[in-house]
Amino acid sequence: MDEVQQLPLRSEVPVELTWDTTKVFADDVDFEKALLQVQEHTAQIGELAGTLIDSASQLAQEITAVLQLYRQLEKVYVYASLKSDQDTKNNHYQGYQAQADALVAQVSSATAFLEPAILNIDTETLQQYLQEPQLQIYQHFIAQITNKRDHVLNAEQEALLAGASDIFNTGSNVFNVLTNADLQFPEIQDVQGHSVQLSDSVYGILLESSAPEVRKQAFAALYQVYGQFKNTLASSLAGEVKKNNYYAKVHHYASARQAALAQNQIPPVVYDTLITEVNDHLDLLHRYVKLRKKVLRLPELHMYDLYTPLVGEAPIKYTLAQAKQTAKQALQPLGVDYLQRVQEIFEHRYIDVVENQGKRSGAYSGGSYDTPPYILLNWQDNLDNLYTLVHETGHSVHSWYTRNTQPYVYGDYPIFLAEIASTTNENLLTEYLLQTQSDPHIRAYVLNYYLDGFKGTVFRQTQFAEFEHFIHQADAQGKPLTAEFMSQYYGDLNACYYGIDVVNDPQIALEWARIPHFYMNYYVYQYATGFAAASALSQNLVHNNAVAQIKYLDYLKAGSSKYPLEIMNAAGVDMTKPDYLRQAFAVFEQRLEELEKLL
Ligand SMILES: [Zn+2]
């Protein structure tokens, strides 16, 4: 692979393009000292287990001790993972990462006593304790635990379940081993006639090919292999669903969905509203598909024709300096204070910019309460990377506000809220580009980028959410989750989502067999709700600047100090109602209309 050899070694990357890890620990010596300290504190905290909590101050002390340990652990973990991600071929730092991983397991097992200990205090006594000043700060933290009171079994029963968790995970383990190690995919021909070894990730790249024959071959070859294992994959998925249903039942939840959503106090109406509204707006997806068919000039549009770019290569390039400048312009609706945070992130070596040999691929924003919010990029001079930059900056500024406003106990935020901050920034960039670019090629590219993102996030993830809920309900009603049963439903659902302009290839009915997110217990719906909420928020920011700005910053500052729906409500989006979704569909329709005219 010639390209890999052209990449610089880590040591050759100019220092100003690397992240400054001395803001976590000055050097490896300091890291190793801190690691030892966390190990010692972990051993000490284990001694608290089994002691009966009999006063408010003892409760406050134990919570504080546990949180303090996590706070130290996170810093150690961040240093190890930054160092390991910057060069995964560096054995010294791979060793740090392995030690940090082991430490996470030790800390979580040593501190597992706290939750049962709190639940062991009877409600009345706990109410009295909560009047005490030293527990004021922990009110919401304790409420999150005591809300589970009716759903936690006695210690012996919980221990039996916990001890069997490896066995319960057999379904997802089989899926992972089968799809990552055992499945053998054939070689297929790319557009230049070269043989390419097919895999799940190569499949994604081949579906973006401009040659219909390559896409068709990749699709047929991939599903031919999955088809051979459809019964095994149905069994592994059924095992996962049965686990979720069983856990929910023994913990006295009405359903697996209720159990999963209860973590963040999300009422099921949020999920149902999403599915209803998306189904009510499927005509927009059908319209988009029709446009695709027309622009690609295909006699028939297949499921494998949905990912190839409609408008060719991006007609505009950005160097990193230009991208930073454009990002700052685009994020202006967020106000001066927000832009100062962006400036800080851009100018203080919080970003690891370029690709080097062994560097972890992709992009992320990370860090912990006591470190800067770091960003990992693998920068290329194009528009997609500008979007990545504003996305990760959205996470980092969210982290900055949360950590600088909230005490450690609420200094993080759940996934349900996380992607809203990053996607709002992407939406603001889209708004900005559409306001400032008049070249029809650039406009078409930006509109298509947005529409494809919406299709993949709102429509596709809701389709997944609908399927996931269906199979859990079917299993709860005693229906066997065979490959035929799941394929029948999935195929019909897919036909309904994409409409009559897409040929209903039988292979797509098997798509359920290869989606890892179906092993993540009611996770996917949050992508769709998050995207739509971000759409509503960015519209508010652009059109209704002053008030929307204050409310938005309040959301970024709230961390996990309240439940996510309360935080979103205060930001101006009621996620139990359909309005925010309808607002997002209105934007989709307006942009689809413009692209229809342009093309
Ligand atoms: Zn993200």
UniProtKB/TrEMBL annotation:
List residues of the Peptidase M3A/M3B catalytic domain: 206-586
Q: Which gene encodes it?
A: pepF
* Any coiled-coil regions, as ranges: none
Tell me which PANTHER family the record gives: PROTEASE M3 THIMET OLIGOPEPTIDASE-RELATED, SACCHAROLYSIN
* Cofactor(s) required for function per UniProt: Zn(2+)
Q: Where is the Oligopeptidase F N-terminal domain?
A: 118-185
Q: Does the keyword Ribosomal protein apply?
A: no
What are the EC numbers? 3.4.24.-
Q: How is the cofactor bound?
A: Binds 1 zinc ion.
Keywords from the UniProt entry: Hydrolase, Metal-binding, Metalloprotease, Protease, Zinc
NCBIfam families per record: pepF
Q: What function does the entry list?
A: Has oligopeptidase activity and degrades a variety of small bioactive peptides.
Q: Which family does it belong to?
A: Belongs to the peptidase M3B family.
The broad enzyme category this protein falls into is hydrolase
Superkingdom assignment: Bacteria
Q: Which SUPFAM superfamilies match?
A: Metalloproteases ('zincins'), catalytic domain
Q: Could you identify this protein by its name?
A: Oligopeptidase F
Q: Which species is the source of this protein?
A: Bombilactobacillus thymidiniphilus
